[in-house]
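Task: sequence design from structure.
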């Protein structure tokens, strides 16, 4: 079934195919209280579509972020494995990168500070960006500097204009939760220092299929399932760059564009670097 009226959130193409429909469901993490049990519960279509142009798998319906995230019930610190993972990744970053009291670590959708607390403990300045006001309040109470806003191009530019730039930006399972995917990535490019590092975690489509993880499909996570299987199977392509290299070049390209550099030249240099990279 092809829905030609749908537009891909990433490439803007309109060749999307619905591959799974879970019917209409209420929003996850938005349980009714005893008082509103008698009211009609709002439901939204929960359909997963595949973009034939860029391979991004995404939901067809976009629910307003204000509705989804302003008052949120999910506290990351309640999940021990999430906190353990945050501790190990922050330890690794601090071992690999010389950070000190003049550095800045930013987390997009920083929740209750479950990750930034580990940098805070080492006296490395942090800034959390968390749209859920109730959760941002908890982070602030724990001493984690947090602003309660939605992250995108505009906020990143405001911060940069105020002289704020990040050495490290974390975005854990956050790209899957935003409708304006390209705006968030552009925001990362704006906010990151030229030698900074963006650490981005996204779910993997193959695992969803292999382990029948249909319960991870919900309105908050409208996308993002990155996968190169399509290109590998149909075209025999294999990546020349690992994910880290590809992201680095993408961020550098956006940064150069924002800085008004000669994009023809930059693009040619990147293509050259790509063509001469060893395939792995
Ligand atoms: Zn697409």
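Answer:
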């Amino acid at each position: 079934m092809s829905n030609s009226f749908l537009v891909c959130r990433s490439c803007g193409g309109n060749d999307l195919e619905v591959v799974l429909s879970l019917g209409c469901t209420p929003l996850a993490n938005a349980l009714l209280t005893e008082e509103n049990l008698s009211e009609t519960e709002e439901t939204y279509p929960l359909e997963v579509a595949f973009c034939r142009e860029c391979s991004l798998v995404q939901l067809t319906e976009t629910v307003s972020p204000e509705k989804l995230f302003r008052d949120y019930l999910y506290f990351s610190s309640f999940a021990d494995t999430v906190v353990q993972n945050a501790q190990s990744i922050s330890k690794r970053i601090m071992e690999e990168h010389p950070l000190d009291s003049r550095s800045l670590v930013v987390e997009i959708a920083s929740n209750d500070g479950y990750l930034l607390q580990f940098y805070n403990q080492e006296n490395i300045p942090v800034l959390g960006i968390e749209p859920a006001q109730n959760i941002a309040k908890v982070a602030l109470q724990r001493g984690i500097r947090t602003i309660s806003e939605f992250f995108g191009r505009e906020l990143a530019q405001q911060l940069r204009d105020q002289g704020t730039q990040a050495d490290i930006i974390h975005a854990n399972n956050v790209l899957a939760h935003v409708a304006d995917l390209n705006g968030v990535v552009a925001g990362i490019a704006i906010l990151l220092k030229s030698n900074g590092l963006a650490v981005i975690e996204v779910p993997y489509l193959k695992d969803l299929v292999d382990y029948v993880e249909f319960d991870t499909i919900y309105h908050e996570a409208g996308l993002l399932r990155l996968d190169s299987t399509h290109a590998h199977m149909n075209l025999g392509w294999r990546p020349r760059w690992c994910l880290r290299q590809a992201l680095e070049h993408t961020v550098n390209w956006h940064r150069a564009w924002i800085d008004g550099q000669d994009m023809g030249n930059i693009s040619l240099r990147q293509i050259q670097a790509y063509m001469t990279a060893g395939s792995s």
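The chain has a mean pLDDT of 84.
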